[in-house]
Amino acid sequence: MDQSALLMSAKVQFVEAKLRLVHIPLDKYDSYIPTILKLLFPPTNVQNNEDPDHAYVSNSWANKHAFLNLSVTPLECSIVCDTGLAQSLFEPAFRQAPSRSSDDHYPCSISSEDFVVISVEGAGMEAGQRVLELTSPLALAGISLFFISTYFSDYILVPAKAKGQVVCALEDRGFTFEKSSKTYVNPSAHHRQPSSGSSHSGPSTPPPHNVTELQARTFALLERNSIIPRVDHDIRLVQCAGRNANPETIQADELALQHGLTKSLLHQPHFLSLTLTQDEAASLLLEQRLMANWDMSGGDSVLLGAKDESLIPITLDLGQLSLDASGIVCGVAGRLVDGPGVLQPIDMNYLSTARAGTVMVNEIDLLHAMEALRLGADGAIQP
C-alpha cells in the first residue's frame, strides 16, 4: 500500500464542538494562570448509580473537553477551547485586566469567529508527508487552517463557516468522512461554484494551482513580512501521553498527571503543549527537562512515549499575518518534503498556535530543514 493509500484509509471526522482561539502574551501569562487551571480542571460529577471505576474513567479531567489545546511556546500562550468556555472564562478575565498600554503589540485576544476541528486517526505514514497530504487539498482551495500533531492523532482546525467547503475539498482528494454521527456533512448540500469563489471570506487572489505554486506564494508572503525561521537550540521536545489504561492505578496516575502539569505550568515553561479530547488520554509535547515533573515513586513515570527521542522546534512568528492567511502549513510542509534541494523528505511534526507556527524535526535533520526553510520564493537563501 502506497503512502497516499495509507492516508486515505485513516479515520477522518469532525469533532462536535465550536471553538475559539485565545492568545495571551507571555508577559501576561502569570496573571491568567488561575483562569487556565480552571479551564483544565473543571469539577468532576459522578452519578450515584454509576460504577465507581467506570465513572471515574468516563469523568476524567482529561476527557471533559471535546477538544482543547493549551500551548506555551517561546512566543506566546495559545489556547483552543470551547466557544462558551472562552467567553465565560477568558472574556471576563481580560476585561478585568489593566488597560492596554502602548507597548502591547499583540494584546490578549479571543478570535471573533468559531472554528471546528477535524481529527485524523490511523494515518500510517511519515509525519511530514502526512501533514502535506492532509493540508494540501484545503490550502489549494484557499481555506485557512491550523494544524496540531499529537501523540495519538492529527487535528486540523478550520473556520466553522468553511465546513462544507472543507468536506468537498477533502472528499475530492479521496478522503472519506465518518458518517456515524451528525458531525458528517453531506457534500451534496455544499456545491462549489467555480466562478463565484468560496463560501467563506477567502484570499483576494485566486488559490494556487498546485503545491509548487503554493510553496512559492507561502515563502514570498513570509519574505515580504520579514518572517524567518528561528531555532532555540536549548529546547529539546518529547512527544508523549498520559498513562491511563490500568484500572488499578488510574486514580494515582490521574493525580500524578495533574500534579506534573500544574507544576510545569506554574513555572511558565519555555515550551509545553497539551491536547485533551473526549476519547483519548492527555497528549503532551514538552521540554525534555520537564519530564521529571511526572515521575512517580520508585522511578516510575505516568507518561508514555520514547523519552530519549527528542525534537528540535523551529519557530515562525506569524503575528503580523491575519488568522485567515491560508497555505502556511502546507507551504512549509511541502518545502521540507519535496522542496528545492531536498533530496530526501525531512520528517516533521507541526504545531499551530494563535500567532505562530512551530516545525519540529529530529536533530539530525535540523541543518537541512533550516536550509530548506531559509530559501526565499526566488530560491535565494534568506538571512
Secondary structure topology:
Blueprint: H1 3-8, E1 11-24, H2 33-40, H3 52-58, E2 67-72, E3 77-82, H4 83-96, E4 109-110, E5 115-121, H5 127-140, E6 146-149, E7 154-159, H6 163-172, H7 211-224, E8 230-231, E9 237-242, H8 250-266, E10 272-277, E11 283-287, E12 303-304, E13 311-317, H9 328-338, E14 349-353, E15 356-362, H10 366-373
Antiparallel strand pairs: 1-3, 1-4, 1-5, 2-3, 2-10, 5-7, 6-7, 8-13, 9-11, 9-12, 10-11, 13-15, 14-15
Helix pairs in contact: 5-9, 7-9
Structural description of this entry:
The chain is α+β, with helices and mostly antiparallel strands and 383 residues long. Helices cover 28% and strands 22% of the residues. The protein is built from ten helices and 15 strands. The chain has helices spanning 3-8, 33-40, 52-58, 83-96, 127-140, 163-172, 211-224, 250-266, 328-338, 366-373; strands spanning 11-24, 67-72, 77-82, 109-110, 115-121, 146-149, 154-159, 230-231, 237-242, 272-277, 283-287, 303-304, 311-317, 349-353, 356-362. The strands form two sheets. Strands 1, 2, 3, 4, 5, 6, 7, 9, 10, 11 and 12 form an eleven-stranded antiparallel sheet that branches. Strands 8-13-15-14 form a four-stranded antiparallel sheet. A hairpin with a 5-residue loop joins strand 10 and strand 11. Helix 7 (211-224) crosses helix 9. The longest helix has 17 residues, at 250-266. The protein is globular. The model is unreliable at 46-58 and 180-203 (pLDDT under 50).
Question: What key phrases describe this protein's structure?
Answer:
383 residues, 4-stranded antiparallel β-sheet, 11-stranded antiparallel β-sheet, alpha+beta, 10 helices
